[in-house]
């Protein structure tokens, strides 16, 4: 049978979830209940965790006024700020940050609040965390130095990945979240970073999933169109594999491949130049991976149409089998 303390705690957490500040005060003021603002359930969740997850800002402020611990952790290492981030509760996140909550805390698995926000596609939450210096253990308060913040986030985005090595930029690209993709690029995300499993970039993921607007943004921000997966497919080929490929996307990637020359070095970096105005190299095939002299790949648009037409008419299944089975 429940003790009075356990029953009172259940009532307190329910009041926090439902956003009843008056009831919260009443329970905390009840001496018989023997509860405080940091009382936790069997999973280590405190009233502040529950209020933050439920988006109950008024209740959150009551708990903070009663001395609730900002960095209280559940048994899985979640802080109230992480709960607010995971559920996209921007007002509660702002309140917690205003009171000094850390934007750099990690849970037991090493996942940061910024990685959570990127995975959820929460643009406002990502922006709030970045403005508070998320990713830089030495930064407290607002980080106004754009160069410093950009360097911090570049380090973060290079190391925060999921189990398959996907970065926040790749996740945003798959989801087609244009605003989030732009924010991550503004903060230093590298569009040509590859996942270690199959060698996919954010551009490849966006192309395969038909996210035309994201593809255009990534190309405009310097993504290398000629990079290939470990099985030899570029973004163009990947854009043709879907059963309902977007013709605009396919034409765009084909035209970019025609007008650019990309020289890829051994480290995966690339030097992009405008294509010379000559009619050479009309014979190369995108799946053959042929290179012109000096190691420079020069693939014409005509080649892509030759490859694309049969893939739409009768060869789609064979082309699909040549792609990796892995997408986000």
Automatic annotation (TrEMBL):
Keywords associated with the record: ANK repeat, Repeat
Matches recorded under InterPro entries: Ankyrin_rpt, Ankyrin_rpt-contain_sf
Coiled-coil positions: none
Taxonomy, superkingdom: Eukaryota
Cross-referenced SUPFAM superfamilies: Ankyrin repeat (SSF48403)
Signal peptide bounds: none
ANK repeat ranges per the UniProt record: 43-75, 76-108, 109-134, 164-196, 198-230
Classification via Pfam families: Ank_2 (PF12796)
Keyword Repeat: yes
Protein known as: Uncharacterized protein
Species of origin: Eptatretus burgeri
